[in-house]
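Q: Hi! First time doing this. I have a protein sequence and I read that you can turn it into a structure. Is that right? Here it is:
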Amino acid sequence: MSTKTVWEGVQENFCHVLELLARGDPRQLCDALFERHLLKPKDYEEVIGTASNEDRTRVLLVKLLRNPPESLDIFCQALLDQGLHEFVEFLRRSHGEHGQQLVQLLEEERVHQ
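A: Yes, that's right. Below is the predicted 3D structure, encoded as structure tokens:
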């Protein structure tokens, strides 16, 4: 399954995904994504420069949808590092074959906790 399909699923469930992402700190998540080269400098500055956490989360999700990370595995690892297991679980459930790789990431994360 292609990454594009995964992001189409995210877009279709935008409000639910926004809620899942809002459980984390958007500034820390932006830092983690930026460090892993999953967020462009311009997008990073725009998200960080947004006033409230709620708006920051929304802007971040829109940026990710417009320019999806090339590596879903690295993206999911960044989410797990931020404690956003539910979002990775959502991605896993919605996306068949690729979801199996995410199951491995989730299980490895549980072992490390």
